[in-house]
Structures are given as C-alpha cells and as structure tokens.
Design brief:
Length: 165
C-alpha cells in the first residue's frame, strides 16, 4: 500500500525512515538535516562508520532518538541533476529499489520516504514523483506500507497525481 501525506517525516509512525543523504552519511540540509537533528548525534557517528555510500545505494543504521516505532534510518544517496543525460533517472530508481531491499534486510514492514533528490540536488519534482511510484510498485518487497512524505503542497500534489497515473 502506498500512501501520500504532507508533513514531517520525523514524526511518521513507521518501522524505518529513508533519508536523502550525501555520500558521507554525516547529515546535511533539508530532510537529511531534519532527520539527523531528530535522531541525535549518534546517527552521524553510525553513518560515518558505513561511509562512503555510493550514489544510488542505501544502507541502514539504528534510529537512535527518533520516536518508536521507528527502529531504522535508511540512508540513500540520490543523484545531482545535471540535465538528465547522465543516468540521473536510473540512479534515482536505484535509490528507491535499494531502500526497499535494505528495509527487507532489517525486517521493516512500514517505510516513510521523502522526495529523494528534489531539493538541493535539483531533480525535477514531477519526474521524481513518477520514478518513486513506478519503482515502489515494481520492486518485490516484504514492506506492507510505504508512506511518501511530502514537505510541501506542490510535492504532495505531484506524488498524489503519480499514484493515480
């Protein structure tokens, strides 16, 4: 089941939260910064031990200070948009697929995703929404509930439209 919501990903009642990380896994701006602030400084220490994380890949750490039932943070490194001719769509697809695979590895049955790579990385939000939905639908997984958490009304509308397309 895929649900689209408008809100704060750090307050989602799910087993795992996906963060749009940078390769260092030390935290950054946007949603990654918000998740790191909510989880506490131990998240950066745990991420550093696993870094670097390749673009398009994903790894999991404990959720530390995030409120239960969240047990894991899945860090995935999205592509920086360079006009679309450098494999950006394939890399973004890999982010969603690998995040679901990692969710399966840690036993998560519910996962919250942000709109990966649409912030400072500049991936066009409408195309990113289509990739998110099609990849989640096409990826075999034991995850029973996926929540796509939009940070603004425009992203919410794009994700909602993509679920209906």
């Amino acid at each position: 089941m895929i649900e689209v919501v408008l809100g704060d990903i750090t307050s989602e009642a799910v087993d795992a939260i996906v963060t749009a990380a940078n390769e260092s896994l030390l935290g950054g701006g946007g949603v990654d910064g918000a998740i790191h602030r909510a989880a506490g400084p131990q998240l950066a220490h745990a991420g550093a031990a696993l870094a670097p994380c390749d673009t398009g890949d994903a790894v999991a750490t404990p959720a530390f200070d995030l409120d239960p039932p969240v047990r894991h943070v899945i860090h995935t490194v999205g592509p920086v948009w360079e006009g679309g001719g450098h494999g950006e769509a394939d890399i973004l697809t890999s982010c969603y697929r690998r995040s679901l695979e990692v969710a399966d590895e840690v036993g998560a049955r519910s996962v919250a995703f942000p709109a990966i790579a649409t912030g400072v990385y500049g991936f066009p939000a409408a195309r990113a929404a289509e990739i998110a939905i099609s990849t989640i639908r096409a990826t075999p997984t034991n995850v029973e509930r996926v929540r796509l958490v939009a940070f603004d009304e425009e992203t919410y509308e794009l994700l909602t439209a993509a679920t209906q397309g």
